[in-house]
Amino acid sequence: IICGHDFRFGRNGEGNPQKLADFCRKEGLGFDCIDRIELEGITVSSTHIRSLLLEGQTAAAVRFLGHGHLLTGKVVDGRKVGRTLGVPTANLQHSEGILLPKNGVYAARALVEGKVYAAVVNIGCRPTFGGENITVEPWLLDYNGDLYGRELQLWLYAYLRPERKFGTTMELKAEILRNADQTRDILRALPEEKW
Question: Which of 32-36, 77-81, 94-98 reaches the highest mean pLDDT?
Fold first, then answer.
């Protein structure tokens, strides 16, 4: 059994790593407790990382995670609006209860069938098109093919901008193309992940 230094369990959180270690020793189970880890004077914790992601501070969250924030899911059918703009996005079916970061546009890497692509990812409700439900829509740059039904992994690295309503679809397309250039620049400066 492995736990963190501040792990609590049981009624009123009265259980702690020492009690768990004692129990494991008595039952002949292996046990390890991970010591406090700090980065930039801040304790690395899932609570802190979640708060960074919810505030749109993706680059800071990546420093604490040691890798991009991962979203996975199957590509499902969508409205196909991106295709008409020349920026074909995929609709990623995300699980309920999974932490989605702050609504907006992100620079990401996408992994499809063992190959990595730069991706511009919109997370939000698509206000230009009157959407109401939160969607995760990546545009895989330089990808040609059909993604429907495939599993996709997205590694988010940087928050580019908030989601907003554009006056015309051409304004939206111009901004997405600018976001694609930003994404390429950001990813070029990052080390390659070990997939």
Answer: 32-36
Rg of the chain in Å (alpha carbons): 20
Residue 195 reports pLDDT greater than 70: no
Residue 192 has pLDDT above 90, yes or no: no
User: Alpha helix (H) ranges present in the chain?
Assistant: 17-27, 46-54, 58-65, 81-85, 169-189
Nearest to 36 by CA among 3, 12, 1: 3
Ramachandran angles phi, psi of 72, nearest 5° = -130, 155
Beta strand 42-43 with 69-76: parallel, antiparallel or unpaired? Answer: unpaired
Using DSSP's 3-state secondary structure scheme, residue 68 falls into coil
Determine contact, residues 96/136, Cβ cutoff 8 Å.
no
CA 163, CA 52: separation in Å to the nearest integer?
18
Token match 């908030």: residue? 162
> What tokens appear for 1 in the block?
């059994």
DSSP-based three-state secondary structure for 75: strand
Q: Which two tokens stand for residue 40?
A: 């930039």
